[in-house]
Each structure stands twice: as C-alpha cells, then as structure tokens.
Amino acid sequence: MQQLTRSDIRAKTTKPNAAKLRLIGLPLRGEQATRFQQALRALDAAYSIVGAALYNRIQRPAVDVHEISALGASYGWISERRSLVQSFLDAEPAVLAYAGVDFDEPEHIRSLAETAAELASEHHSLVSAIALLSYIDQELGWTAVTEVAGNA
C-alpha cells in the first residue's frame, strides 16, 4: 500500500471552489463552504485509504469468518460514507454552502480525517482509523453504525 504523508493528503484535498461560491454571492458562507469542502475532500481521501486497507485485510487468507464479517461491515459503512461525501462534493456550490453553514469547525474535521488516513496508511492501525472516522461521523451529526473490527 502506498505510504501517504499528511502533506501529500493535504495537497490532494486543497482544491477550493471559491470562484463558483463568489458567483452566487456567498462571501462569508463561501469561505466557510470552501473550508467545509476541503474537510470533505480530506474525509474522502481518508475513506478511500481506510477502504483500501479494509479490502486488503479481507483478502488475506488467514482471516477467520468472524473477522471477515466485522471487516465487511466496516467496509460497507466506509463505502456508504464515501458515497455520501462524494454526493456533497459533486453538489452545486449553494448546496455545499448550505450543508456547511451550521458546521463551525471544518479545520478540525480536516485534521481528524488526515490523521485517520495517516493511521491507516503509515501506521497500519486500522482499528484506530475506523474509530476516528466514526468520531468524525458523530461530529458531523451523521449516525455512525459501524462495528469496529477488533482484530484489524
């Protein structure tokens, strides 16, 4: 698996869409929406990295049935959340601004997402990465329905 550093992840996730946001007249909301978009991009990268790590773990021949079940549940949850994040990222700027308007700390989410990605890629700590993504779900007000794979 490719080793990604925090700066690699940040470079891939800092593509602001500020021009479109200014066109619709949301200067303050636009800045907030841009930061929210960056947080979502970092979250998307984290879901991608954790999903790949889960997939690789499931493919190992020494994995027992109970572990495969827990890993599969986590993989399904990660896939669902990544799809949700992609929907937000593909949305029009006004939708993104509206979605991020009640969220005060996108930098916090971005940092947590980058940490989750690092844990999964560099430190091979899949359980910690999944738990951190579950915490992010709670911070965003999304309901986290995942069973953390205890042996991952």
Description of the molecule:
The protein is an all-alpha fold and 152 residues long. The protein has one domain (6-140). The chain is built from seven helices and no strands. The protein has helices at 6-13, 18-23, 27-58, 65-90, 93-100, 106-121, 126-140. Mean pLDDT is 77; it is low at 15-28 and 145-152.
Topology:
Layout: H1 6-13, H2 18-23, H3 27-58, H4 65-90, H5 93-100, H6 106-121, H7 126-140
Helix pairs in contact: 1-3, 3-4, 3-5, 3-6, 3-7, 6-7
Give keywords.
single chain; 152 residues; mainly alpha; 7 helices; disordered C terminus
Short description:
The chain has 152 residues and is mainly alpha-helical. The chain is built from 7 helices and no strands.
Number of helices: 7
Structural class: mainly alpha
Sum up the overall morphology in one term: elongated
Note the gap between the termini.
16 Å
Helical residues, percent: over 70%
